[in-house]
Automatic annotation (TrEMBL):
It is found in: Cell membrane. This is FAD-binding FR-type domain-containing protein. Coiled coil: none annotated. The chain crosses the membrane at residues 12-33, 45-69, 103-123, 165-189, 209-227. It comes from Myodes glareolus (Bank vole).
Amino acid sequence: MGNWLASHWLSVLFLVSWLGLNMFLFVYAFLNYEQSDKYYYTRQILGTALAFARASAFCLNFNSMMILIPVCRNLLSFLRGTCSFCNRSLRKPLDHNLLFHKLVAYMICIFTAIHVIAHLFNFERYSRSQQVMDGSLAFVLSNLSRHEKEKDSWLNPIQSPNTTAMLATFTSVAGLTGVIATTALVLMVTSAMEFIRRNYFELFWYTHHLFIVYIICLGIHGLGGIVRRQTEESMGESHPYNCSQSFLEWDKYEWSCRRPHFVGHPPESWKWILAPIALYIFERILRFYRSQQKVVIMKVVMHPSKVLELQMCKRGFSMEVGQYIFVNCPSISFLEWHPFTLTSAPEEEFFSIHIRAAGDWTENLIRTFEQRPSPMPRIAVDGPFGTVSEDVFQYEVAVLVGAGIGVTPFASILKSIWYKFQRADHKLKTQKIYFYWICRETGAFAWFNNLLNSLEQEMEELGKTDFLNYRLFLTNWDNDIAGHAALNFDKATDVLTGLKQKTSFGRPMWDNEFSRIAAAHPKSVVGVFLCGPRTLAKSLRKRCQRYSSLDPRKVQFYFNKETF
């Protein structure tokens, strides 16, 4: 736990500050609307529901301001580059941008529910105060608009006893925009569930762009001025605490209190979201400009297990290890952009990605290139963008864990290491790399066999065979494969991969692996990097905490997971 706090203290501080601001804004707005004299008469009709509606609106504005910032990828990449020489704990919050984006979305859902429920009560009370006709203060206030001289100073937006709360909801600016914004929010949140996002990415992608509808509705939501307060001038001549008890005598005598005048609450949402919207528009313009730059496809390789490799070049393209790009193929879909980790090294003259068939878009793309069309279909590229894997060379010891196609960011790292050794780069801080690749089928190992084989030979020639320790694990096999491997176990190379390192059957025994690494590097800082499923992430995170020493001068494991 101490190790986790040491590396995540800034993330925790940021999260606590965000939660604290939400609490402060809610309490501040609630007390303001519950106690302010300007809203005394409004509370006579609406009661405490007014304070709940306005307090949740404040928090909705705040979180709607925050929701777009974590997905401004160019801003995050710039900050990551600026902090490249900072302490690793200062860069940690940048690795959790999507998690923070989700937390803000959940907070928006919570406050939306409070806001909607409170306003349902408000509309019902507005309607009821028009219909009771009991001569109460609420009834008198609701009928102020019937006096011609004060027709612009109404308090109740429902002007007729025949108008129902439902009709008022769908015929007012605030009500209609609220319904549309809430519907858009529900669709965005439900389509962002992990199951839908992984299996129906196109549905997630298109539905998530309803945020444009949500933002527009939020900006104009307050134009109707439904929530009203007493004007300053009216407060001076007929303060509610002096005049509310004599409401039946308002304007009746010369010495009587004047009828109160009211004004609509000015719209405020646009003030909160203007700056983030401007930042996001700039982000999109920059990404659009970069996506229009010409991309030349230099080589197309079809690997086993339906994996497509594209080697490309683009003027001015510069990358770091572990980064990713967004790819679009207009001939398949003009609007869809999909993220892929770069598998090339910064030292290479091209950049490459490996694409596995996992959905309609990727299957169509692979099918298109399998046909060897002439000319090649146009590919648009946006990026690159930074990830946590950029920090791999900041650690003395690195543990890389890839599951299936999750090996791609580590291919870039291993290639870069190969180039650094060839060029005798003495600035390389990393002294040891442990690489674990977990696959379901043997064909997947063929993707980077040549790379691993080249690394083996390079390490031998340089006398650094201990620098890279890699293990390949096959989790899905039959008796024929296992028997064939057992019969040929004594051979110099593995019969499944052709590499010197033998393939293991099953999954890694992580306790044994971490215990061995901790014993081999008793005073080192070990970075553990994963590109794989959530269950594996949970397991590795626990091991990092378990095998980190309580003494900060001894071995410390820091967990890092790829998210994009």
